[in-house]
Design a protein that fits this description.
By secondary structure, this protein is α+β, with helices and mostly antiparallel strands. The chain has 7 helices and 8 strands; from the N terminus they run H-E-E-E-H-H-E-E-E-E-H-H-H-E-H. It has helices spanning 10-15, 65-74, 79-86, 121-124, 130-133, 136-145, 159-178; strands at residues 24-27, 30-33, 43-44, 87-90, 93-96, 108-109, 112-113, 156-157.
Length: 182
């Protein structure tokens, strides 16, 4: 199937690695119908506040017009002032700058997000990004970098909530790529 991944449904994306000739598949010892994502029973995640997702290179936090407005309002700045002080262009998209002399997010202070209530959708929806959820192996690999994934004290997040977060992330990508930015 050579369909553009941006036009595929979430269920299709989550199941594209399954055997297309079979109506069900086995993942992690459990059988799933072709219409269910592999995480149909939910996943465990708890943000520990470690700040690792806000540090390191390479990485970009791309901003949609809604993100820009929310952050500009948070600082009581115009869109233009916020963009000039806190963003730079990457392939015609706006990304947050890093802290001077590091590859940490400019808003990471003492390992905490200083704009948590106004943080971008990309940050709000982590770790519910499609490329981290395509297969159980992708999720496990993400867990090697994020201690909150499958954390022993993490609550079980329902499959429907995970899919809603994925859609929010995808909506934000569409807004970033098909809206005019300041």
């Amino acid at each position: 199937m050579n369909e553009d991944k941006t036009t595929q449904s979430l269920s299709d994306r989550m199941n594209e690695h399954s055997d297309e000739s079979s109506a069900s598949r086995i993942e992690g010892g459990e059988e799933h119908s072709a219409q269910e994502p592999w995480f149909s029973q939910g996943l465990r995640f708890k943000c520990t506040g470690c700040g690792k997702c806000c540090t390191g290179s390479p990485g970009y936090v791309f901003l949609s017009p809604s993100d820009l407005q929310r952050l500009a309002d948070h600082f009581s700045l115009s869109l233009e002032e916020f963009a000039a002080n806190y963003t730079y262009k990457v392939d015609d998209k706006l990304s947050l700058i890093d802290s001077p002399g590091s590859s940490n997010c400019v808003f990471l202070k003492e390992n905490k997000c200083s704009v948590y209530e106004a943080r971008p959708i990309q940050c709000r929806t982590f770790p519910w990004w499609i490329h981290l959820l395509e297969t159980r192996s992708d999720w496990e690999d993400a867990g090697k970098r994020c201690e909150g994934i499958e954390h022993p004290d993490a609550p079980l997040v329902a499959s429907l909530e995970i899919q809603q977060q994925c859609f929010s992330y995808l909506d934000n990508l569409l807004e970033q790529n098909f809206s005019l930015s300041p």
